[in-house]
User: Fold this.
Amino acid sequence: MMNRLLHTPEGVRDIYNEEYRIRQKLMEQMMTNISSYGYESIATPTFEFFDVFGKDIGTNPSKNLYKFFDREGNTLVLRPDFTPSVARAASKYFSDEKKPIRLSYAGNVFLNTPGYQGRLHESTQLGAEFIGDDSLDADSEMIAMACSCLISAGLKDFKISIGHASIFGGLVAAASFNEDEIDELKELILNKNFFGVEEFIQKKSLSEELKTLFLLLKRFYSAPEEWAQMIEAAQNYPMIRDALFYLEKLNDLLKVYGVDSYVSYEMGLLSPYRYYTGVIFSGYTYGSGEPIIKGGRYDRLLKNFGKDVPAIGFAVFVESLQLAIDRQKIAISTERQMNVILYKKDDRKKAITVAKRYRDYGKIVLLRRITDSETKEQLIKEYAAYDVEVVEGE
Assistant:
């Protein structure tokens, strides 16, 4: 029984010492970066009413949520995702706000995913939401800020892959696919099973032009010049064509921000979250098998909470980012200048007074009593890496 008490449940873990200090430093650097764009911090509850994350909102499946009941019988959910929480809060506290709202957050989220996936059930996210602006300016600011967050964390080699929800939406609308067909195709694309996508499309009675567009979903492009074939094939499909032209304009603004070298374009990029409506993006780097950042436009989400305004946001997956930084051997300085005050029992009052004076000046002070079985020489050697002071007598 005692041995079991020392272990954590599946999907959660302890974080301490250097790993924790690195995480705190990374988050501090990224939050400072987001703040420099004029974003205000918000903290939402760890648990909310079930409907905030229900099927109509388009977030995670109910089976993946941690659900429980309060004393009144309401179904509550541990927060699986920050975006609906922030959308709810913005709708409540900024209901009459006419100008755009910029909010940032950091905290833990909870997902009861199957154990075989090897993912943590409790993880840390940090991110931002730009609410009340559906312009190209908002989209470019959000993607540029996502890039600058990763740069501030120390990453040099990463890519933000950008897509648009209207490309897939326009394709399935033009093909007149039913809901089951859309779900099947979406699952194939989310799993990057493009052989399956090709087989699925070839079985359908579609024009060659439309088949060509579907098969171009698996392509990655480093710049708009490379998708001329797709624009030509999309001339008869305004929804798809307009999305491609929009991405061209977006790329022009990202050049001005100086982050265009960090982006690529993925026409088949999708999200399992159904609330995305426009630009979608995900960030990747080597050393992590999972995305380190995800985001996109969700213009209809806030309507569920009574504030019908557009929005765009992103979340950094801190565990994935920290794993990549560790594997890339990027040095994150967490050095703390610590003073160690050694004292014997009879000198404790003087030692406490000295420590208090140092702390009042902002210094970190570790008080260490010399026991009867130790000598000050032993402890001075043990704490050789720090500034050591021995307090003796009056």
In short: The chain has a mean pLDDT of 92.
